[in-house]
Amino acid sequence: QVQLVESGGGLVQAGDSLRLSCAASGRTFSSYAMGWFRQAPGKEREFVAGIRWSGASTWHADSVKGRFTISRDSAKNTVYLQMNNLKREDTAVYYCAAGSRVVVVPTGYPYWGQGTQVTVSS
Q: What would the pLDDT profile of 16-32 be if each residue is shown by its tens digit?
């Protein structure tokens, strides 16, 4: 069992940066792959980035590639999403999720945080 708590969201202007954190509790956090998803009003939840349990491999959606970076610190049981050059279309609730491997569909992750709101104004 893994419990996930996101933090770091907020209201920023276009071009600004934010770093989201996802703190995990549970005995086997280091053995899980982690993903970040986001959901804008009226839209489906979409994959943003993922990282293997080892941290050796990462994936980023095309829409955020070059601007967002996922990373993890297993010693702190925390996964991060560094978001640079934010755009209005990045506005959404951001969720972290844990699963056995990185997949781009939400159904592949049994554990989810409660989400953190990111709002980007122009």
A: 999 999 999 986 777 89
Beta-carbon neighbour count of residue 76 at 10 Å?
12
Return the number of other C-beta atoms located less than 10 Å from residue 15's C-beta. 11
Beta strands 10-13; 116-121: pairing state: parallel
Strand pairing category for 58-60 and 10-13? unpaired
Dump pLDDT digits (tens) for 80-93.
Answer: 999 999 999 999 99
Q: What are phi and psi of 114, to 5 degrees?
A: -85, -15
Give the distance, in angstroms, between the CA of residue 75 and the centroid of all CA atoms in the same chain: 18
Count Cα neighbours of 11 within 13 Å in the Cβ-side half-sphere: 2
- Residues 73, 109: Cα–Cα separation, whole Å: 20
